[in-house]
Specification:
The chain has eight helices and four strands, in the order βααβααβααβαα. It has 148 residues and is an alpha+beta fold. A four-stranded antiparallel beta sheet has the order 2-3-1-4. It binds uridine-5'-diphosphate and magnesium ion. Uridine-5'-diphosphate binds next to loops. Its EC number is 2.7.4.6. It comes from Aristolochia fimbriata (White veined hardy Dutchman's pipe vine). It catalyses: a ribonucleoside 5'-diphosphate + ATP = a ribonucleoside 5'-triphosphate + ADP; a 2'-deoxyribonucleoside 5'-diphosphate + ATP = a 2'-deoxyribonucleoside 5'-triphosphate + ADP.
């Protein structure tokens, strides 16, 4: 079953959106396979966003991610990478549809509340980076009520 890495950014934690965001993924029918509240150091944030290191917003992005604790999660389910990105909404909250997390809870691109892996390959890399011991191995008893 597919897995994705989802992170509630420091603004999402500070603004008390943790429960709301976890609830959206739970209610969809996805399964929580990893969860921790963690403050990361600058080199770790730079590693997570290494593909963006040449972008003009990179240093501001790293400052943002290390500005407070984040909630790092692994979610599992059918097409969870693509569907997770849809639940999150477009990168710029000005373009995120109402009903998405960024559409409902964010205004600016540099304070867009949440991260989600953009492909199965980046999910694999991000889960390995953030959860070096691997996700938690368990099966939800709701499985047959979500999948036919
Ligand atoms: N970002 C920014 N300015 C930009 C583009 C991106 O501050 O012009 C930040 C924003 O927080 C975004 C993150 O950098 O979520 C990573 O950018 P990416 O293009 O990977 O967007 P995402 O995958 O998060 O939608
Ligand atoms: Mg991205």
């Amino acid at each position: 079953m597919e897995q994705t890495f989802i992170m509630i950014k420091p603004d999402g934690v500070q603004r008390g959106l943790v429960g709301e965001i976890i609830g959206r993924f739970e209610k969809k029918g996805f399964t929580l396979k990893g969860l921790k509240l963690i403050s990361v150091e600058r080199p770790f944030a730079e590693k997570h966003y290494e593909d963006l290191s040449s972008k003009p917003f990179f240093s501001g992005l790293v400052e943002y991610i290390i500005s407070g604790p984040v909630v790092a999660m692994v979610w599992e389910g059918k097409n969870v990478v693509t569907t997770g990105r849809k639940i999150i909404g477009a990168t710029n909250p000005a373009d995120s549809a109402p009903g998405t997390i960024r559409g409902d809870f964010a205004v600016e691109i540099g304070r867009n509340v949440i991260h989600g892996s953009d492909s199965v390959e980046s999910a694999r890399k991000e889960i390995a980076l953030w959860f070096p011991d691997g996700p938690v191995n368990w099966q939800s008893s709701l499985h047959s009520w979500v999948y036919e």
